Amino acid sequence: MTMLEIRNLHASIEGKEILKGIDLVVNAGEVHSIMGPNGSGKSTLARVLAGEACYEVTEGEILFKGKNLLDLEPDERAREGVFMAFQYPVEVPGVSTKYFLKASVNAMRKHRGLDELDAFDFLELIKEKLKLVHMDESLLDRAVNEGFSGGEKKRAEIFQMAMLDPCLGVLDETDSGLDIDALRIVAEGVNKLRGPDRSFILITHYQRLLNYVVPDFVHVLLDGRIVRSGGKELALELEENGYSFINGEINEPVSV
Amino acid sequence: MSSTTTSDPIDQWEQTDEYKWGFVTDIESDTLPPGLNEDVVKAISAKKNEPDWLLQWRLEAYRNWLTMTEPNWQNLEYNKIDFQAISYYSAPKSDADRPKSLDEVDPKLLETYEKLGIPLEERAILAGVAVDAVFDSVSVATTFKDKLHEVGIIFCPFSEAVQEHPELVRKYLGSIVPPNDNFFAALNSAVFTDGSFVFIPKGVKCPMELSTYFRINAISTGQFERTLIIAEEGSHVSYLEGCTAPMRDENQLHAAVVELIAMKDATIKYSTIQNWYPGNAEGVGGIYNFVTKRGKCAGDNSRISWTQVETGSAITWKYPSCILQGDNSIGEFYSVALTNHHQKADTGTKMIHIGKNTKSYIISKGISAGVGRNTYRGQVKVLKQATNSRNFTQCDSMLMGDKCSAHTFPYIEVANSSSHIEHEATTSKIGEDQIFYCNQRGISTEDAISMIINGFCKEVFAELPMEFAVEAKKLLEVSLEGSVG
Lengths: 256, 485
Description:
With 256 residues, chain A is α/β, with parallel strands linked by helices. Chain A is built from nine helices and twelve strands. Chain A has one domain: Rossmann fold (3-Layer(aba) Sandwich), CATH 3.40.50.300. Chain B has one domain. The interface between A and B is medium-sized, with 32 and 25 residues.
């Protein structure tokens, strides 16, 4: 089953074109990694998928489970099953993480025609999912992301993903700023969530995450276009030679 | 009563120059023409059939007012008020002038009531539908009154208290807020028309929130409201004024005075939800709300707690304060003030520590949206003899959008070394990024705003009586509709 199909996607911010024609197909169960240097448009792609208002899609289309994703508001996309782990998770002072997650989980459930979880079931779900990311429950009594360390924020994002059970997880540089232990924990969480009905797009600058989460496909994004695609070995090639070796090829046609 | 003695002020009034403008009135008629002078004060007093001492009290206040100048230190600008253009007495509309049923009421107003979850029968009353045409709410009110009467509580309109309990009114009126306290308090003292009077006798715990009754009956309290609450030794009362529903009012200037007195071991909890007309989105119209509220913890171990949710009015100028005179007395101020569109609020509190071991807590939450301006202004003053006193102040501001502003002016004076003062202040912004984050977790924009705002205000809402906490949440949602995204 095709989970996500991006066709000739062009997107700009404040009139400046960032994505210049992206084509990408992600099937159910697949993990795709998108790599590229700073400024290549990786995060823009994640944010356009999630529907952030400041990005304007000028051309192309995105189909998610066969539906036109661009027709949906950001909250509708989320309820359909698109989850984005933020590169910089936002703080929401005064709103406890538990309360926030309950609202979130129940919004999803309602959309799927399920009953809202009561306090007991919800706490059980929390306990079960916390194990995935080795997170302490006390963190959930604090306001959303407030005063969390960088690593705690990233782990909390993966924990939220586990709670919300999405079809597509888009991780926007979740590995950046993590020490090796935190990286391992995050990767372990992702690996446990992998399954035949769930797809992932891992956006990363570095290869090291891919030592722990082995992708099915690797794509190199450069100046708003996917210039190379391959298997996991492409990541290793990049690790050795840097992005510069691709720079040399940029004007040549790249076969996908 | 004394108004029919030698010189009837109404007669005098009719004989003044104003008479030639065609103004004719008698004691039953309903509105005085615009303008303020001693005769107007006399006329109001006469209409209320007041004793002479009260008339003299009003006149003295009026004469004081003439020598005073309008305050200009606040962080507010507003169109100059022409005090001669205001009519200072206007009786409630007769039933004949009111809408006969909800069908005749502005649908937009009804829509708001709906959103706020106001019970159907109350909607009609709030919208000014003639009470007889609605349902028998009067009997509901009477039932409350009987119940209160059984335990010796006096709870009645201020003007009724003047007639029925003149000794109490005379003893306490102006004892906390003197008639010459400030420009607006002086004006109120001269021309107040009505309000509420509460007396809780020694050792009595008021068996109900003085709210439901009040809500049904406070519709035409008018622009110069006067409230006096006396809690005798060991008594306890919780009072709620106002209503979440937007109230119709044609008067632009409101200048209320509220005085609270708590004797030894007494507790007064005073909650306000203020939702007067804020003006339209362009800043046209709206109520100017200049309020003086002050409580005195007169006895040892007494406690006065102010909770306010201020969402209405174009201009809010209000500093509910506590004079902590009794040893171990406690003063509290919990506030949510919201300014959207062109609203401006300058609000806060004063905590004056006089007794030993006195404590005060101040929690202020300011929310600004649109081009609104929100100012916290608070004074904590600890006198020399108020040893071992403590104050904790937390003052948080939230901004929505980039055209609004928040300001904080704390004034702290401590005259002894055994007291502790803590002040915390934060400013945060409800941004597109927070909303987007919530959206990305499947939460709609509307729910996200409500969640963020409620999270921000929750310490204050926790102080409100339950039913009003629920309404207050909805009120904030409705007041902020369309301000983000």
